[in-house]
Amino acid sequence: MRFAVGMLLIDAPHSALNMLGIDETLPDRTVTRVKKFKKGRLSYPYVSPQAWRYWWRKTLEKHFSWKMSPLSKIEKQVFTGANPIKYDDDDVFGYMWAPKTQKGDEGGFALTRISPLKTTPLVSIFPTRNSLTEDKGFASRQEGDPVPYDNEFYSTILKGAFSLDLDSLGKFTIEYKSGYLNLVTPESVKTLIQNVSNKDKVKKAINRALKEINYEENYLKPAKEIGVEIIGKAWIMPKDVRKKRAIETIKALRYIFGGAKQTQYLTDVTPKFTILAMLEGGINPFISEIVHEDEGKIKFDSEALVSRILEFKDLLNPEKLFIGKDKGFLREWENELKKVKDSLNEKGIEVIVTTVGDAIEKFAGEVEAYYG
Fold it and tell me: Which end of the chain, N or C, is less packed with Cβ atoms under 10 Å?
């Protein structure tokens, strides 16, 4: 199994990209907090994975014209269309769709797909004591007394990592277990109910779902039109479709946009630094403390990166490392990056140090080559 993995840094000099909401513990309820979590005795601002993935989705929709899955709401739950044949984002970002249940239909089923794209939160390198500020303001355009409000924001560098499973992307399974029942077909009903005790109820739920999702028109017909290969319990998209979705997912990082409070704290959320590689297996060696805070400064540990890459050299395929850095971002790292390049080159690993955009484009080329 081949994974495209990476880490990135986002420069957030005056930002409030993901908010927790109004602080309900205060009597006047005028303070809006940013999201943060505790690590030991320190707190760190962060952007949730859901928010980051939403930015990623919107970038793919706007810049690459992806056909996005429609959303529907059933009671208190929201579902996508759960159709990765028609909708690009259902393939890459995964889904959970539960057919409408009727009274007495306990023990139904749900279509679920584990996302090939896995992400960490975007976490501040600096703790709140070094990064967080409370902005006091007044709403005064209305008649009468000004209305006070407070809003937290931060000045920090956010760090995140991701992993894209290139083998599961564009491949959909029909197995009755969570995360692997991506699709359901008329032919699969008998197989799906073999290992369940409430066979009649599950069978009714599946047949009702097939009718509800309009299987023939929305799944089988478009699958045949684009040449989906059906092998046993797997539907496999054509290579050109899988390749397109994979490389555009990677390329979207170059143009990613989004975030809360952009009206007041405009922030460019494109990466200013990134490390990218392809590995056999789901390990991401860049999640560890390669970049860290040291006495109020951000340090790049070249020895730690070299050590991590050499530790997993047998999984690195191809033996290449792509490092992108904005020229104006942390200029003092240039010597450390040279150390990485020299050390790994001696071990037979090619290191490409370039701009962020160029690194992403070159890495996308390696992903494209993987699909042939």
Answer: C
